[in-house]
Design goal:
Radius of gyration: 22 Å
Bound molecules: flavin-adenine dinucleotide
Distance between the termini: 14 Å
CATH architecture of the largest domain: 3-Layer(aba) Sandwich
CATH superfamily of the largest domain: FAD-linked oxidases, C-terminal domain
Amino acid sequence: MNRDRLSAWLTACEKLLGAGSVNAPLRPGPGNGGTNVSLFRSRCAPATVQPTTAAQVRHVLRTLSEEAPGVSVYPVSTGRNWGLGSAEPVDDGAVVLDLSRMDRIRSLDIELGLAVVEPGVTQGRLARALQDTPVMLNVTASSAHTSVVGNALDRGVGLRRQRCDDIIGLEVALPDGTEVRVGAWPDEETPRAPYPHGLGPGLVPLFLQSNLGVVTAAVVKLLPRPEHSRVVAVRFAVEDVESAVDGLRHLYTRGLAHGVLKIYSASAVGVYGGPPRSEYVAYICVDGVASVVAAALAEVERVLGDSGLFTDFRYLSPTDQGADVVEDVVLHALIGDPSRNDAMLRAIFGVDAHEVDATGDQGWLFFLPMIPFTGRAVAQARALLDKVREATGVDCGMTVNAITTDSIDLVVSIRFTRNSGEAETAHRALDLLYEWFPAQGFVPYRVDIDHMGRVPALRSHPGQSRLMELLKTALDPQSLISPGRYPAFPHH
Ligand SMILES: Cc1cc2nc3c(=O)[nH]c(=O)nc-3n(C[C@H](O)[C@H](O)[C@H](O)COP(=O)(O)OP(=O)(O)OC[C@H]3O[C@@H](n4cnc5c(N)ncnc54)[C@H](O)[C@@H]3O)c2cc1C
């Protein structure tokens, strides 16, 4: 990359976008992982450009190839992709295109349950805008200050379903600086059904976990707010995990329970800032009108009680104060309220969301395999985590998020003290997870910046990489956008 051209281009960007919109460089250079909370290799300090409108984003892209050949941009929404790289680009030298100042809720349609939001809109802000309405946002357990769009684009997981299922339309700036809207887009003059598929091949998924464009706005499908919800919390012993998971699945396949089933392993609650436990805890949500909820709860109690595996039955309302920070998040987030999430974040990191990367002595890593929703698969995963503990001494937290009746987003979390030998051991444990889980068919569905090079080998068929390469070459021949992110082939 030609540094003079980069610097001239950044000066031109600042002229266009206004004072304070360009930072170069942002963070400390090479060393022990810069300032991302995961301590992923921070190779050199990235420059940052902060546009405030979609037109500015398109302009930035248009000028990129002409005025700064060889430079690429790495768009982030709020850049709080903690555990996976935060706002750090995959490719050394990419300029971070920080979209957090594009924070307009462009429109809200409560009747059809649609919000058009820009990348900087946080889940806290959108959730507040929906308070006391019949619809709610599918919120995650991360900070209220994280983005709706960025999380969904990386296929994050909320308490109700996987976030990408909430996205029905996208406004995208293509690498040549042109605009395209894909999927469904609300039209006030001529109302249309919020039907994402359109005609021909679906185009929305092209921009999920993708480096083919910069998303400047998204149409988010909001969920009907349940009339009544109750949450059953139960415990079970570590050695019963296989039968317990099978028993819990039965509730979901029979339609008795709703949203994402959450199970925290004995150590996971402690990793997330709650009190350490010796048993697993599961949260099962039941929604509906009052009579239906009452009938379903009776059946849940009967099924789980008859199995003899579960203890400590508690029947909670999502507005109750949870017994600990983690429970408090689960209860409230289930009804679209992320207002408790930052208390959990503070319990983990000891600082607020905007300080997690820059300060604090706690480090954080995620490994996120998708595994079948069967007791056998969860027990197998547990055994692999035990093997990692024996090899490294790292006791990973394990959270089961059953996102459908077939698939579990298994959240493996590692917390470590940053300025200590623990950091290196934590990263060694992560490398082992990337080796041992895929070998058993448990492939990650979302990858951190240090392990992006493994993505091609993790795809289910090698032809997919060739197809990805054809798409990338057609849309972004100069590789201007997020090089190395979910790449066609290992990136050099
Ligand atoms: C305690 C804790 C709990 C957590 N709980 C959850 C949870 O329940 N569910 C969950 O999913 N995650 C969770 N996380 C992880 C993480 O914090 C969230 O996923 C968070 O929402 C991601 O940050 P963000 O929203 O700022 O997205 P960003 O960091 O802005 O975006 C993520 C990635 O998407 C791409 N991208 C973003 N915006 C654009 C764009 N406009 N155009 C093109 N590409 C783009 C970029 O490559 C970026 O790196 C948790 C983390 C912690 C520490």
